[in-house]
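Our collaborator T.R. sent over the components below with a one-line note: 'Predict the complex.' Nothing else. No constraints on interfaces, no templates requested, no preferences about which chain binds where. So this is a plain run: every listed entity goes in together, and whatever single assembly comes back becomes the starting point for the next discussion.
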Amino acid sequence: MTTISSAAEQPTAAVVAPPAGRPDVNRKKLARLGWLFSAPALIFVAAVTIFPILYSIVMSLRNVQVSGGGIKMTGITGANYSAVIHSSVWRYALGFTILYTVVTVLVELVLGTVIALVLERLTAGRGWMMALLLIPWSMITVINAEVWAYIYQPTYGVLQAIFQAVGLGHPDVLGTPTPAIIGMMVADIWKTTPFVAIIVLAGLVMLPGDVYEAAEIDGASGWYTFWHVTLPLLRPTLALAVMFRVLQAFGLFDLPFVLTNGGPGTSTTSLAVLGYQAMFKNLDFGGGAAVASTTALLVLIGCLISLRTFRVQVGKENT
Amino acid sequence: MRNRKRTGWHRFINGVNISTFLVALFIGLPLYWLIASSFKTPVNIGVDPPQYFPDPLSLSNYKSAFVDYDFGIYFRNSLIVTLIATALVLFLGTLAGYALGRLPMRGKFPMLVALLMISVFPEIALIAPLYILLEHLHWLDSFQALIIPDTAFNVPFAIWILRNYMLGIPKEMEETGRIDGASPLRTVWSIILPQALPGIFTAGIFCFTACWTEFLMALTFNSSNNFRTIPVGVSLFGTIDITPFAQIFAAAVIATVPIGILVFIFRKFVISGLTSGAVKG
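Returned assembly:
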């Protein structure tokens, strides 16, 4: 199984075994070289990501005033956080983001697994199907949103035409809260299910064949084999896919920004949309930073929990 | 393989093929709708019931996207930002991936976990401080406003991918270089790099896709039309009342073609990147 863990388990110590004679000198030299080679990347990443995260946390704890001359910060306050936590809009956005994440990831996982199982049995044209599956994955999300906006358009969209043809009336998908949420989920599922399918398919292909022969000899049914053989073996692949999908879905921004701008009302306002609106519409940088920091904290907690529960082995330090 | 031998019509019409067809339909129909609608005239795109096949086929939207909606500027900007950021990511990522994969450094493991976490961090958490920083530097509305954060956000994933490839290169390779007395940088360049080429392709195509599709930062940092990228430009086509879908779809088709070709050519590497190393959408 090629997950993060497998490659890391190969012995790396042997790779850099220094020639006999002056092991310490050589080892130290190589270590110094290692830091020299990785320093540019590490410093660059730290400067552009870690430093701003810390700055964002500081900002969320201060009174921030935005004026023509720039940004002024005074005092230390918990007001931004208490305003966020007591705001019903934030609570709704949190609930919406969690609901959206759970539903889309679950549907994408089930649908992606089904598609992978089908494609695994496909004898001809699998390469073409893979190429087709990669198109939604590589598509600009904004464009995906525009395509669905056209499909859902209430007066000339194709969906309302189909609904009308079968006598179900005129749906205004993006103008009504619940349909807007479902419509957005469909757009997300269309774009991301292929990505899950490819991961699961690659996992399926790598499963050992002899377990299936054993199951067949034992007379196990297809469903039984899937449930008790395939699924447990796929667990590491699925766990990793779920983890990254969850973290990504939690940052949901592009789809609601283009499709509904968070509406109707605030029904599709995700945490990221809320943070963006606070900062760049209302110029409330303190509040925006508080929303952003709480989102980041939730992501971090989610990341740590899933690393633990799925026991995803990230790597071993063996040098 | 668990495929049973099939005879007669069962060879063509069976559960697997029908399901595959349904999957292709599910993915293909919205794509067809995008491409077909880009050829409808601006009037025909708004008729009810919709035209399921554009009649007449019109290329005017493609012209209009460039002439009336500045799509050429957006395309140029996207290309500049994406190409420079990808080149930087590959340079920084290869050196660091080599070091973290093959050299005996203490504290490597926490470093790699930290990088993994950064690569999944939501952009929204960084937007405000980066905006303030760029404002101080007078770098809002510039290419570097996007190239720098795009590079930083994609380096961690590239390091992970490249490190995993580096781990798989046999140890004898470097020793040859060392015995020949080649400098470390020369060893990486002429011995390791050719071996790690699949990893570089994989990291490159992922980085290219991520930069090409990036929206939130491009929207926030560059508000001048001269520095807008495709996603931002396309999202702002038209006015509040009118969405010019015809021109949007023409622009969308042009924006999807380069990335589509790249992904098609390098699909082997994309798939290996999705499955080995970390997984990122």
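Summary for T.R.: Residues 16 and 22 of chain B are 10 Å apart (CA to CA).
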